[in-house]
Amino acid sequence: MSGKQERRGRGNGGRVLIVDDEADIRELLDLSMSRMGLAADCAATAGEARRLLSEESYQLCLTDMRLPDGDGLDLVRFIAEHCHDLPVAVITAHGSMENAVSALKAGAFDYLAKPVSLDQLRALVKTALRLPAEVLGDAAPGEPELLGDSPAMKEVRELIGRVARSQAPVHIRGESGSGKELAARMIHRLGARRDRPFVAVNCGAIPESLMESEFFGYRKGAFTGADADRDGFFQAADGGTLFLDEVADLPLAMQVKLLRAIQERRVRKVGAPAEDPVDVRILSATHQDLRKRVEEGRFRQDLFYRLEVIGIRMPALRECREDIVRIAERALLRLCATSGAEAPRLTPAAGKALAEYSFPGNVRELENVLERALALRAGNAIEESDLNLEPAAVAGEEPPVAGQGPLQDYLDKVERLAILDALQRTRFNRTAAAKILGVTFRSLRYRMERLGLNERDG
């Protein structure tokens, strides 16, 4: 039966294009759409689908990966080029995750595995129909956002706008304090799940013995102290977005369980006899090099490929020097809003000093510098002297070289750089930095005071 003939009565909730060469699959999907109040047009070939796309307007396209006259990926690419606002989901053979990942990389909104789960189908359709017609506006008042007009920041915002319209897993990499969580929240806000939960998890802060119960929940009586049923992160994020921050810190045993949950879209609570379906979009981030950890055997390659279907690199603040003053001024407004005080202005000299500083801790360090300056300033403006920036981290300064000055000055510079590096790697957590440096917390605090380093909140 041709695509034009195979049409169900019009629904009030929108129209879906179904593309599959198997009549029983078309009938199943058609009937499911009808029960959801949606009209459906069906096509048996890619050619019929392209003709219908030229004649009608759709809110969603469901297509099989294998078609008599072409590949489902070709149809995905055709829609991405000619109907870029139309979400398209692909139906793949069971266990064919490579095809699903390829489709997501090609621009597919999402995927379904055969045999098609009707629960997952309904969840996918509802999510697709919630997609905004266009990219939403600025963040709500008081909500942090990614600022800047530098080429690097413009590129990141443009990429975020594109991936927000997909359900593909996104991995965000970048230095500590570069705004990885802000990027994740922006993806969530611009996408179909914007009215659903956004659950952020710091994978490095959960004891290994509690990981399974924290991620998947547990049933009453599953272990000592489990006196009631409890949901995990997956259940809390159901229908929304689960953001796995510092995902590189997951132990290998938990990586296996996370991979299964992502692939099967089902989780089992600790102590439960059966798995429960979950509908979450996975975003992840780390400041570490995941590829290197895969090569070292500390991160599963299959999980890496499932997480980094789409990759976003957040630029360091020193790569966006023309944006630093604007970011600083917005941060001052936010910092002063909590106390109701009027935000002071930055003097030209202070702005120039900020723009020339390398900021190893990125935006987090910038905000820390500004908080200190607010406390130290004497007037209604922030002077360069109020910033107390470290010369050793100024852009363009060469590392210290032995023999070009007094030995103590050389040793102090080396020690200062080592401490700053440890603070950057631990997000300015002094306790963790002390462990990296092999000294006690008290010793680190003494050394920072002696070297005139700002103590930063952990």
Question: How are the secondary structure elements laid out?
Answer:
Layout: E1 15-19, H1 23-35, E2 39-43, H2 46-55, E3 60-64, E4 66-67, E5 70-71, H3 72-82, E6 88-92, H4 97-106, E7 110-113, H5 118-129, H6 151-163, E8 170-173, H7 180-190, E9 198-202, H8 211-216, H9 233-236, E10 241-245, H10 252-264, E11 266-267, E12 276-277, E13 281-286, H11 290-295, H12 301-307, E14 310-313, H13 324-337, E15 345-346, H14 348-356, H15 362-376, E16 381-382, H16 384-387, H17 407-425, H18 430-437, H19 441-451
Parallel strand pairs: 1-2, 1-3, 3-6, 6-7, 8-13, 8-14, 9-10, 10-13, 15-16
Antiparallel strand pairs: 4-5, 11-12
Helix pairs in contact: 6-7, 13-15, 17-18, 18-19
What attributes characterize this protein structure?
458 residues, alpha/beta, Rossmann fold, Helicase, Ruva Protein, domain 3, 5-stranded parallel β-sheet, disordered N terminus
